[in-house]
Specification:
single chain; alpha/beta; Rossmann fold; five-stranded parallel β-sheet; 11 strands; elongated
């Protein structure tokens, strides 16, 4: 199995007196602190705040303060578009970071590109995004083609699960792409897709899919459920309550506290890919990344990140998305350090 290490971190502005800073670098930040994406984006915002605070505590960037200007996208594309324009035309930022979902990014990044503002998504994983918004849009996370391939290889090669039922949220680009990439790699390896079904995100009753799965003969060896964070736990809980016991696999949208809060102990034999693992977070879910409690593989920046996060927030990160936000800010800081100026062509 391939193991991917994605260590990603984010932060807020340090409490330093204004008199000590003559100049500043500004980063526009949009995360969804409310709505369907909030369980992913709130941790990212915390990570971003932590990164900026750490940078400013170490004399900033080239002696300049790093200032984050954060707006709440409210999981609403119309709000996101307004926030993007405000960052560009009122706050005069050269760089915007944010989001953990493709549809949210596509509400913002094209506006940034039209105005020659760089956009870095910390957690939207569609590998098509740089092509959709060329020259100005970058990913600081892995792509869905990567995590889907890992899921296919792990389930088929490691566990010998040779047949699969696929359930996909038809309303999200992320879920549709993830399922497509998974099925491509899974069938390349020799796996059989017995059926793919679709649902609309936000549904509450999945009994029709329970019946559908139970009628398949022979039964699938595994299920691949490609769903958003608000739906995953409910789907798993209903499937397990109906005595559907096959292993369930999915992507990084599973990596929020909502999964355990909603599905609880029924998450046995649930596997998903994600970007970063704090070992204490869970016992029964497989991650594709290397646990940070293994001192042989733990690196100093990772230990620093977790320690700093605990110091600031009093707890370990609840998901990998805090690390993604942190790393996006660190990447921008590195860009500013090496650039000759703040114009798009210089950055």
């Amino acid at each position: 199995m391939k193991i991917f290490r994605w260590f990603i971190l984010f932060s807020l502005v340090a409490f330093v007196s204004c008199e000590s800073w003559i100049h500043e670098y500004k980063i526009g930040v949009i995360y969804n602190l409310e709505g369907s994406q909030s369980s992913l984006d709130i941790p990212s915002a915390k990570g971003a705040e932590l990164a900026a605070e750490l940078i400013n505590s170490q004399d900033g960037i080239n002696g300049r303060k790093l200032t984050l200007i954060l707006y709440d996208g409210k999981s609403d594309p119309s709000v996101i578009k307004k926030a993007t324009r405000k960052l560009i035309f009122e706050d005069k930022v050269s760089v915007i970071i944010g989001f953990n979902d493709t549809d949210m990014v596509l509400a913002s990044a094209p506006i940034a590109a039209e105005n020659e503002v760089i956009f870095i998504t910390s957690g939207a994983t569609s590998p098509k995004l740089p092509e959709q918004v060329p020259a100005y849009l970058f990913l600081s996370c892995f792509g869905d083609n990567v995590q889907a391939a890992v899921l296919a290889e792990y389930s088929y090669e490691r566990h010998g699960l040779s047949s699969c039922y696929v359930l996909t949220d038809e309303n999200m680009d992320f879920t549709k792409l993830l399922s497509r990439y998974f099925m491509e790699r899974y069938t390349e390896l020799g796996g059989k897709i017995l059926k793919e079904s679709f649902f609309k995100g936000g549904e509450q009753d999945y009994s029709d899919f329970v019946v559908e799965i139970q009628k398949i003969n022979p039964q699938p060896k595994m299920l691949f459920v490609s769903a958003g964070p608000d739906d995953v736990g409910n789907i798993i809980a209903q499937f397990r309550a109906a005595n559907i016991t096959q292993p369930i696999f999915g992507g990084d949208s599973y990596d929020t506290p909502l999964l355990l809060e909603t599905a609880g102990a029924t998450t046995d034999e649930v596997y998903y890919t994600t970007h970063f693992l704090v070992e204490e977070y869970t016992d029964n879910i497989y991650f594709t990344t290397t646990p940070t409690n293994d001192q042989e593989v733990a690196q100093e920046p990772i230990i620093k990140y977790i320690t700093s996060y605990k110091d600031k927030y009093g707890t370990i990160p609840v998901s990998s998305f805090a690390a993604l936000g942190y790393d996006a800010v660190m990447l921008v800081a590195d860009m500013y350090r090496r650039a000759s100026g703040t114009k798009p062509e210089e950055l």
